[in-house]
Design a protein that fits this description.
The complex is a heterodimer of chains A (about 210) and B (about 240).
Chain A lengths: L3 H9 L3 H13 L4 H21 L5 H24 L7 E6 L7 H12 L3 E4 L6 H9 L4 E5 L8 H9 L5 E5 L5 H7 L3 E2 L3 H11 L5
Parallel strand pairs in A: 1-2, 1-3, 3-4, 4-5
Chain B lengths: L1 E7 L3 H8 L5 E7 L7 H17 L4 E5 L17 E4 L4 H6 L2 H8 L7 E2 L1 H5 L16 H8 L1 H10 L11 E5 L6 H13 L4 E5 L3 H8 L7 E4 L5 E3 L7 E3 L1
Parallel strand pairs in B: 1-2, 1-3, 3-4, 5-6, 6-7
Antiparallel strand pairs in B: 4-8, 9-10
Classes of the chains: A alpha/beta (about 210), B alpha/beta (about 240).
């Protein structure tokens, strides 16, 4: 039986090899992989995210924790897919045009995947065309990220483009605020990765 | 008039140059470059300074800051007007105007830039808002191990199509830049980045210290009002 405390600690401390070993052992033992996510990796990412919000952890810690979780997810995802369990929804995510920063976007991506969503990661420097293609490919929500006050204004164009086109647009990133989201008519805003999952849950009317 | 200036020390040499030409009595206080990486903390420091200056009887408080990662968003003018250049960050101020910044950087605002101040006061370029102070890499290795350190370093240096973007070095004619440019080039070459030079201007800083604040280039916040970010490229900040 998996030691969930050890798994959580390995994620929080960014011990990628330890996460891989624990997850692989659980898979080999035929354990329910969803439990690894729900009781191990996701709470660990929430905790490191909360510590970051309280200025008790810094970007490097977040990065290595996310990398460790990704290592575990990589082992789990194929099993979930082959079990026939459908993802809860499809989300397209990308950093907006002119912006090359992807740390925040990658954290949201990993949390959404961990929560059972299929995520189309469009990378950085995304214009409307890229988001639109993802929506054609079935994305129900477009998630836009930016780190700079100079690139945040592009979100207004994305929101305007998808108005009345069916897909919802959510925004986030260091310069973004709820007030800005309201002003440009975005469907939602979250200040962190944990909140982004809750936001997507609520927009897709999934029980939280 | 008696003005108090709070500025990032990225403008140390530039402000020293223009302050000597100003007809006004100026008192400047410089804060460390890189403080914008923790905008909440920088905002608190600036607000404390603004209030102290308001109590000390200055005629206005001038900022050598733009929006700077929202560090100035939410600042309140205290007893006297607060004057803030309409600029997203130091790049527009170093270039001398918001419009020049738009011409040069609107296509790729993430382009890293540098100046004498960036070389003399810490990191060599402003690139990502997540920058580490100094070189940082060795400290990362010590704290997180080689494998994680390499990953962190890579993640904190954004790329476009797998390439690190080139650096723009902003050179202001009145400020000697030879040494700084050489150091910037050496570092950029080590990282495999090209360097492009752009001529900057003291124009905006000169207007600031001369008390000449056209409304389309400076926000003059009346006492009691707050600075608010707008979320555009033209107005940038407004008073509320």
């Amino acid at each position: 039986m998996t030691d969930f405390e050890a798994l959580r600690t390995a994620v929080i401390k960014g011990k990628r090899n330890d996460v891989t070993a624990i997850v692989q052992a659980a898979i080999d033992a035929g354990e329910d992989v969803n439990t690894l996510l729900d009781q191990g990796m996701i709470p660990a990412m929430r905790e490191i995210g909360d510590r970051f919000s309280r200025n008790e952890a810094y970007v490097p810690e977040l990065l290595i924790a996310a990398r460790a979780m990704q290592a575990g997810l990589a082992l789990i995802e194929p099993l979930i897919a082959s079990s026939g369990r459908e993802p809860f929804g499809k989300i397209a995510i990308g950093t907006v045009k002119g912006d090359l920063h992807d740390i925040g976007k990658n954290l949201v991506t990993i949390m959404l995947k961990g929560a059972g969503y299929e995520v189309i990661d469009l990378g950085v420097n995304c214009d409307v065309t890229k988001y639109e293609q993802a929506v054609r490919d079935g994305a129900q929500i477009v998630a836009c990220s930016s780190l700079l006050t100079t690139t945040m204004p592009y979100m207004k164009e994305v929101v305007a483009y998808f108005k009345d086109k069916g897909a919802k647009v959510i925004i986030g990133g260091a310069p973004v605020t709820q007030a800005y989201a309201d002003e440009i008519g975005a469907d939602g805003y979250s200040e962190d990765a944990n909140g982004a999952v809750k936001l997507v849950d609520s927009l897709l009317k999934r029980a939280c | 008039m008696r003005y108090k200036i709070f500025s990032c020390n990225v403008f140390l040499r530039e402000l020293q140059q223009v302050m000597g030409e100003s007809p006004h009595q100026l008192e400047a206080e410089f804060l460390e470059l890189g403080e914008h990486a923790a905008p909440g903390r920088l905002r608190e420091k600036l607000q404390t300074g603004i209030q102290a200056a308001g109590e000390a009887g200055f005629d206005a408080v001038l900022l050598g800051y733009g929006l700077c990662g929202r560090a100035t968003d939410g600042l309140t003018a205290w007893k006297v007007p607060l004057v803030v250049p309409r600029s997203h960050d130091c790049c527009g101020i170093l270039l001398g105007s918001r419009l020049r910044f738009e011409e040069e950087f609107s296509e790729m605002p993430s382009t890293p830039f540098s100046s004498v101040g960036f070389v003399e006061h810490g990191s060599y370029y402003f690139s990502d808002g997540e920058m580490l102070f100094g070189d940082g890499y060795e400290a990362l290795v010590e704290q997180y191990g080689e494998d994680n350190a390499r990953y962190i370093y890579e993640a904190m240096h954004p790329r476009l199509d797998g390439e690190l973007p080139g650096v723009v070095f902003i050179e202001i004619p009145e400020i000697p830049a030879e040494d700084a440019l050489r150091q910037c080039r050496e570092r950029a070459e080590r990282e495999g980045r090209p360097v492009r030079q752009l001529t900057g201007s003291l124009r905006l800083l000169r207007l600031l210290v001369n008390g000449d604040w056209p409304a389309d280039e400076f926000l003059v916040v009346p006492p009691g009002a707050k600075v608010r970010q707008v979320g555009d490229w033209r107005e940038i900040i407004r008073a509320e």
